[in-house]
Design goal:
TIM Barrel, about 45% helix, two-stranded antiparallel sheet, about 325 residues
């Protein structure tokens, strides 16, 4: 891969990107992944309507810190005018990039004609892209899914001034399961002149090497594997630079990350009870260690933050059994 990847005028220090993930990629998680070596981080998907209504929870999701930058704010919706207005507000709030969600397979999002439902309607998608690009001065990117209209929509992105596209190389029906369609990702990359980011199934050096070599994509977006081990950014950057495969993060390293994450959540997350978010991250972080099931049971039975903090004062990861 080239030393630098550019999205519009923004030059990234690397090629590894944190994917947008609902309920995960808030300012606390993003900043720690940036510290671990992510070149670019994405917000959770944000509803254009919630942005424009100043929804309190969405206001929290708009938070970003200096150490995260550049940060992309992802927006979803189905009305060109509302999407443009929402993107303009995100720009005013300090987003470095705007990302349009055309990939989310969640039923509630698809039912309202947003997310991956827009892949079915190139004409409407073109209107949304045109409206958003014309509304803001910062770069606009698009997150896509594998679909019969993919290449057509990719060309629309290129023609309407989109700065980069990311392809989750699975269909809506696959969701987040199954093998990514690397030939389709390769076809998209060969068709477009703008940067193409590959997403789906990258969990280690081998899967990264395969995606990079088989598709020629400009960047690699990492989602669930980053929640399971945020140290993946450091490991894969080391692999890209030196060709050396480092071992996964130890249980102690992940526990250290989780303690930092809890500290940040307690400082930033004031709108809702943070326990569900903490449990979600904890379950992923410790999924592949002995006693992981008992650890999840322990975390899920925590009744309040004081109890969770008492557990984290233990020097090591301690399963129930």
């Amino acid at each position: 891969m080239k030393t630098r990847m550019k999205i519009g005028p923004i030059s990234l220090r690397g090629h590894l990107i944190l994917a947008p993930m609902s309920g995960i990629t808030d300012t606390c998680f993003r900043s720690l992944c940036k510290r671990a070596g992510a070149a670019l981080v994405y917000s959770e998907m944000l509803s254009a309507e919630a942005i424009l209504r100043n929804n309190p929870y969405t206001r929290y999701l708009l938070k970003c810190s200096a150490e995260e930058r550049p940060v992309a704010m992802q927006i979803f919706g189905s009305c060109p005018e509302r999407m443009a207005a929402g993107a303009l507000k995100l720009e005013a709030e300090g987003a470095d990039l705007i990302d349009l969600n055309l990939g989310c397979p969640a039923r509630r999002i698809v039912r309202e004609g947003s997310g991956s439902a827009l892949m079915e309607n190139p004409q409407k998608t073109e209107k949304i892209i045109r409206a958003v690009v014309r509304a803001v001065r910062i770069p606009v990117t698009v997150k896509l899914r594998v679909h019969p209209h993919l290449i057509l929509i990719g060309k629309i992105c290129e023609n309407e001034g989109i700065s980069a596209v990311a392809l989750h190389a699975r269909t809506r029906e696959q969701g987040f399961r199954g093998l990514p369609d690397l030939p389709v990702l390769r076809q998209l990359k060969r068709t477009l002149s703008l940067p193409v980011i590959g997403n789906g199934g990258v969990r280690d050096a081998l899967s990264l090497k395969r995606m990079k070599e088989e598709t020629g994509c400009d960047g690699i977006m990492i989602g669930r594997a980053a929640v399971q081990d945020p140290g993946i950014f450091k490991r894969l950057n080391h692999f890209l630079a030196r060709g050396v495969v480092l071992p996964p993060s130890s249980i102690e390293q992940r526990l250290s990350f989780f303690r930092l994450y809890v500290k940040k959540i307690l400082e930033e997350f004031s709108y809702r009870n943070p326990l569900p978010r903490l449990r979600r991250v904890s379950s992923s972080l410790f999924h592949d260690f002995p006693g992981a099931k008992d650890w999840r049971i322990r975390m899920n039975s925590v009744k309040d933050l004081d109890e969770l903090l008492r557990i984290l004062k233990e020097k090591t990861y301690v399963p129930v059994t």
